[in-house]
Amino acid sequence: MTTEYAIRLDRDACDGVFACLVRDDRFVESEDGLAAIADTATEETTVARFDDDRLAAAEGAAAACPLDAIKVEVVGDE
Length: 78
Known about the structure:
By secondary structure, the protein is mainly beta. It has one domain: Alpha-Beta Plaits (2-Layer Sandwich), CATH 3.30.70.20. Helix content is about 15%, strand content about 35%. The model has no long low-confidence stretch (mean pLDDT about 90).
């Protein structure tokens, strides 16, 4: 069974601390000086979906964010 997850970055809550960048390589510094998820639009909230193999990195990034701008959610099971 594979579980699908989503990682959500609330860019309005982000303050550019970048603790997420060293814990999950999907996070990058965007041109506006805030964190973004690579390959997603720079909207207020960005979302990336992934499977179990990336869960530890996503949870590490969420735990490291001092502003709680990152959430990891289960979105489905197969």
